[in-house]
Amino acid sequence: MTEEKVEVPKKFEEIVKKIEEMSVIDLSELVKVLEKKFGVSASAPMMVASAPASAGDSPAAEEKASYTVELKQVGDKKIDVIKVVRDLTQKGLKEAKELVDSAATGPQVIAEDVKKEDAEEMKKKFEAAGAQVELK
């Protein structure tokens, strides 16, 4: 993937530089905060519905570009899972514990729009802590 040069106005250079240094998880969290703060949505509206897949199309032929990491079950090592959540999301102890506790009632989204490699790495960390994670 080649980077396209974009002219950044001087007044935004510092902000853009800080954003470039952020992790994908931090960026995802920042987007959510901005959406709530200003009552807007960062997702692009769907303009055209995709054509139905024909019988010859293979789902394996199309690999997803980004994944959502979902915590399904915590397992026996709850404290280890909380540590992984804190490490991956940069959440505080209280928020990480609440997220892990919520997984008992239903799946919890840990990260959205994550590259395949990053999502698989996250899954490995959760599984090492005894949790069950699904990539969607």
How are the secondary structure elements laid out?
Elements: H1 13-20, H2 24-38, E1 67-73, H3 78-89, H4 93-102, E2 108-114, H5 116-128, E3 132-135
Antiparallel strand pairs: 1-2, 1-3
Question: What report would you give on this structure?
Answer:
- The longest helix is centred in the N-terminal third of the chain and has 15 residues, at 24-38.
- The protein has 136 residues and is α+β, with helices and mostly antiparallel strands.
- A 3-stranded antiparallel β-sheet has the order 2-1-3.
- It has helices spanning 13-20, 24-38, 78-89, 93-102, 116-128, and strands at 67-73, 108-114, 132-135.
- The chain has 5 helices and 3 strands, in the order ααβααβαβ.
- It is elongated.
- Residues 46-51 and 54-58 have low confidence and may be disordered.
- It has a domain at 65-135: Ribosomal protein L7/L12, C-terminal domain/Adaptor protein ClpS (Ribosomal Protein L30, Chain: A), CATH 3.30.1390.10.
